[in-house]
Automatic annotation (TrEMBL):
Molecular function via GO: ATP binding; ATP hydrolysis activity
UniProt keyword Kinase present: no
Keywords: ATP-binding, Nucleotide-binding, Transport
Protein name, UniProt field: Iron complex transport system ATP-binding protein
Organism, scientific name: Edaphobacter aggregans
Domain ABC transporter, residue spans: 5-251
């Protein structure tokens, strides 16, 4: 199995406070994982640690290894690791077309600035990705004229463009509450797209507050509380009403239908 991530004894501070405590986590490429936990427990900081936007406190036993390497050129890493959240990369993205917004994934930029060199190979790869995510009709449409669901689809393309769909350069998609601000139909579209990508071998690391976002292909759950991973195991064991009730310190009810869970 190809390793995607290995974190050992990782502590991370933000401002004056330590917000991640002794994180130990290994993920293989192509795994499908959901991270659950109350507001402020450190989920986004964990993703930012993986993308090197937050750094661990240097200690002798601390390890952060991504795709089997501990040292990265940040530009190269960002190409391999796209994060999709409910926000666009910048306001300039609004005037960028769908195809160009996908191409910005090669540069981690908000738009295709004139000084960026786009090669033919990049264009071919962007067209491949537009096809893969079912967004060919959005190629020439400005992002600002798209619905929130269409924008999210393009941002998934932007996150995927820098890596290939197979082999050691396999796609790994990090999603931080991607269904926020989407209506019911757009949430459904997003789940269908994530299911298709997961079935094609794209790895998924999904942060969500919505249990119904946990597509059937996700089979591993991480539970975080107060900056610590408090549970890490199969969905069948952890995605239960008692575990969720303990995690969120409130009574949670759970139902299951067609591989999806619904909590209230
Ligand atoms: N830029 C920042 N500066 C200082 N502290 C921060 C910053 N961003 C987050 N924090 C703090 O770090 C802790 C973890 O925040 P983080 O955003 O990782 O949690 P989260 O689980 O993703 O929360 P949510 O579910 O609300 O998005 C919180 O206590 C938060 O207040």
């Amino acid at each position: 199995m190809t390793p995607f991530l290995h974190l050992a004894h990782v502590n991370v501070a933000r401002g004056e406070n330590i917000v991640l405590h002794d994180i130990n986590l290994s993920v293989n490429a192509g795994e499908h994982i959901a991270i659950l936990g109350p507001n402020g427990c450190g989920k986004s900081t964990l993703i930012k640690t993986i993308t090197c936007e937050c750094y661990p406190i240097a200690q002798p036993d601390t390890t952060v290894s991504i795709f089997g390497r501990e040292r990265w050129d940040l530009t190269e890493l960002k190409k391999r690791l796209g994060v999709v959240s409910a926000e666009l990369p910048g306001r300039q993205t609004l005037t960028t077309t769908g195809r160009d917004a996908v191409l910005t994934g090669f540069f981690s930029s908000s738009t295709l600035w004139p000084n960026l060199t786009v090669t033919e190979a990049m264009r071919t790869r962007a067209d491949e990705v537009l096809e893969q995510i079912g967004a060919v009709p959005l190629a020439n449409k400005p992002v600002g004229e798209m619905s929130a669901g269409q924008q999210r689809r393009i941002m998934i393309g932007r996150a995927l463009v820098g890596s290939s769909s197979t082999g050691s350069d396999r796609q790994m998609l990090l999603l931080d509450e991607p269904s926020n601000a989407l209506d019911i139909a757009a949430q459904q579209d997003l789940r269908d797209l994530l299911r298709r990508l997961a079935q094609q071998g794209t790895g998924i690391l999904l942060i969500t507050h919505h249990v119904s976002d946990i597509i059937p292909e996700i089979d591993r759950i991480l539970m975080m509380k107060d900056g610590r991973i408090v549970a890490d195991g199969p969905k069948s064991e952890l995605l239960t009403a008692p575990h969720l009730s303990a995690l969120f310190r409130t009574e949670v009810h759970l139902t299951q239908k067609d591989g999806f869970h619904h909590a209230w």
